[in-house]
Amino acid sequence: MAKGAREIVGMVCTKCKSQNYITTRNKINMENVKLVLNRYCKVCREKTEHKETAKLK
Ligand SMILES: [Zn+2]
User: Fold this and answer.
1) Domain 6-53 -> CATH class
2) What are the Cα distances from residue 51, in Å, to 1, 12, 13, 39?
3) pLDDT-based confidence at 7, cuts 50/70/90?
4) How many Å lie between the centroid of ligand 1 and the Cα of residue 22?
5) What secondary structure does DSSP assign to 31-52, as a single string?
6) In Å, how far are 4, 5, 33 from 13, measured between CA atoms?
7) How far is the CA of 2 from the centre of ligand 1 (A)?
8) Regarding beta strands 36-41 and 19-26, do their DSSP bridges make them parallel or antiparallel, or are they unpaired?
9) Pairing with 49, which of 1, 28, 35, 41 sits 20 to 30 Å away (CA)?
């Protein structure tokens, strides 16, 4: 089993800056790619863009 290739990142709403989701990403394949997901933000009460952040709250 390969391990250590994935790291846990937080997903932060680009509108209100609150961290709503946690996901994992593949370090090797995604080195220079920032994850952006369209997810529902319960603070904004709408679907917003969420960007990854290295910091976990
Ligand atoms: Zn938000």
Assistant:
1) mainly beta
2) 29, 5, 6, 10
3) confident
4) 15
5) TT---EEEEEETTTTEEEEEEE
6) 27, 25, 17
7) 35
8) unpaired
9) 28
Domain locations in the chain as residue ranges: 6-53
Residues whose beta carbons lie less than 5 angstroms from ion ligand 1: 13, 15-16, 41, 43-44
Residue 52 to residues 1, 20, 27, 41, Cα–Cα distance (Å): 26, 10, 13, 14
Rounded distance from Cα 19 to ligand 1 centre (Å): 8
Whole-number Å distance, alpha carbon 52 to ligand 1 midpoint, is 13
Tell me which DSSP letter residue 1 carries: -
